[in-house]
Predict the 3D structure of the following.
Amino acid sequence: MNGKPLVSIVSAGLSKFGKHEGLYAREIFALALKEALDRCPKLEPKRHIKAVFVGHMGESYEHQGHMGSTAADWGGLIGIPATRTEAACASSGVALRSGIYAVLSGLADVVLVGGVEKMTHRTTAEVTEYLAMASDYPFEQFHGVTFPGLFAMMATAHMNAYGTTEEQMARVAVKNHRHALLNPKAHMQKELTVETVLASKLVSWPLKIYDCSLITDGASCIILTKPDLASKFTDTPVHIVGSGQASDTIGLYERQSLTSLNSARLAAKIAYEMADIRPENVDVAEVHDCFTFAEIMAYEDLGFCKVGEGGKLVEKNETALGGRIPVNTSGGLKAKGHPVGATGVAQAYEIFLQLTGQAEQRQVKGAHVGLTHNVGGSGATAVVHIYRSD
């Protein structure tokens, strides 16, 4: 594992995920930023932070665009260049890539990267419509295709090709809800059984309500710097040693495969090669489980198992805490929640905690290498990052 650190994370913050009644997205972002700054007393925000990148998917939720400057304003960072990035549910994964670019370019020694979304004040129908904007308008949205529908198509294709079962998908939900019980910041603190998941309301076969991630409010932040400056701010930095991003067709109907995300495979390949590691070297991972099937597909796309064997991996408890490769120790999008613009950096927050030994009851013993996998839309964007502790 000889991957050279690209940047170092010196602090991280996360709001509670859930329903934040009476708060705007900008205020929720300020909560996450406060934790990041409180964790890093040696950092003087106005003096040290030279750029801000904020992932934010949709103006429609609050009728509010221009979120980069809005977040910087309410975070007390007026005057610092602030940029919003948008890549659907991978918006803050792309913000993280942008922050890495900024540090590596030499234009900024210290960068704040975050993400935010306020969603719960809207109806389910409104949120479904806004999320659908990340799919192809003339050929998917216009015909009433939703994201549960798109992922259901992928799930049924995988079931037909490899024998993946509804029960295996249900086990993903059970596992992630069990992990979320150990995460005080998770949205849904509720234990599930396989039977409860299978008996829950049908959304788009084979996906039921408990196969789907939560409509959530939340924000996330991390602070990046050059590796040789990290010791100025913390004794326990986490280094990003691999970063991959790739794209695919916006429409699912144009893909060569419905059982895999080529963008995720490409992004993972880039990140693994940059980090000089193999999938078996990963100690803990946060993957984009917007639906339970998406986690099973992620196992395969990331090389945690052979193609077609993702269902068996969760069935054998290999991705649970205490297993061979714990996945979504935070509870994942499924139980922690999925405030879409915040998700990518929220994954990085969990890995930061794991690799610095701060994950408390859900700590993966001896975790040294972590991975995050953030997907936009039905896979038109994918971002994979690899992290290493000293």
